[in-house]
Amino acid sequence: MITEAQIATPREEAALKDEERSFVKGAFSLTLCSIIAQVVNYGIHVGVGRFLAPSAYGSFAIIVATFSIIETVLRWGLAKSVAFHVARDKAGAKQILKKSLRLQTVYAVICFSVFYGLSDRVAVILGDPGLSSYLRAGAFFIVAFAFVPVYGGFLNGVGAFRKQGAMGVIRSLVTLSFVVTLLAYGFEIYSVIIAYTASTLAATVYGFWASRAAPGTAKIPVQTKHIVAFGLPLFVSSLATSLLMRMDLFMIQSILTDRVLTGLYASACALIKAPYFLSLGTGLVLFRRVAQLRAKSPAAARDFISKTLYYYLLGLAPIPFILSAFAEPILDLVYGQDYLLAAPALSILSFCFALMILQEVLMSAIAGLGRPRWSMVFGLALLPVQFVLVRQGIVAMQLTGAALATTACWGIGTLLGVIYLVRQGYLVLPKWKTFLRVGIASGASYYVALWGSPSGFWLIAFAPFIYLLYFALVRLMGEISAGQVNSFVVNFLPARSRHLIGLGA
Length: 505
Known about the structure:
The chain is mostly helical.
């Protein structure tokens, strides 16, 4: 709990503001790189979806989801553990990097052996033995990806956010080039495996180059057991989150054993999960920022977490309503008419998208406070809940039921995170009037979207217009003041930009 003695002095507050600007710049850099990477990934998903039939696209989605699980297993909380220890003692960065690379080598060899040996069994569990050859070939992705989390965590810890983001951009661009080339030569699903493996190797090479100038004299030597002790709870938490994100898709394939239905649901998932991944870059910077603030001023950590969650709530609120209203036009525009049957599931998963981002913010804050075990507990507690809900949902309503169950599960996770931070004194919730104003403006956005009913490329222009209309309504209701806008500009924009728009001193 926070005490009165822990309130920051004016000098500390000034230093915190400077560091806050650094946080925003770092978050902006990572988010910009994430946008580039996700635009490329969107292009891959859309291109493959249009190139292949829904049944083949279902196999593509299963392979990509499997790679995502492998990434989580290989990260095992190592990226955040490395970032945490490097941020605390940059002088010992080289030592931490070397120990982490040695540790990861042993772990990757074990993971490769286990996954390669169990590929046939996994394919049977998924209800499609034909996937076994793809899974065996995909095992080599483990070797390629092994050192990516080590270099990514190191670059985050030293504050090299642009280089960290560049690793993701390089992966996406190389993946795109390989997928396009190999699909043209008729490789189909194997093109995905080759592309993901080659692009990850390219990112690893860049990470090695970007991390070569690490300082090497530690103030307090970090032992391997400390890296593991901090990273293990984060690994369990990340693995639980990764399974929560993909359990519905795996269960649809396993229970319904219909590649077409799997492909339809995968299209809806891709449309809401790709924007979610844009929030992960900010989450990494948020984690590092909270870790720093907690050591200096717990009161400042509380204010920072509260402010961050408020702005996320304000910015995210209308998006599910807009996406839900535009579900059919979006699917028609992106994937084509063969995927329109996924529209009801997409309408529901639009709300899951916002809850996923809010839960990521909350869990990053909890881990940054030095309490990764609670993130692990919440993730593990949600797994059986989602399994039961999704199973019942699929049996009762197929794709729509799975979407409802998944959304409900992420809602529970978000609520648990809020309750924990409030009880620990690290989160102050907005007033009830804020929720009322945001709710009214979001509801109005939904009905305007239904009234407009744009299609095709008009949708691209109309959706941002509705989003701006939402902010205009919130501003008219007094939720956003001119002073808040000016304060944001003064605190977070460079002086040259402030003078250009005529705000700030």
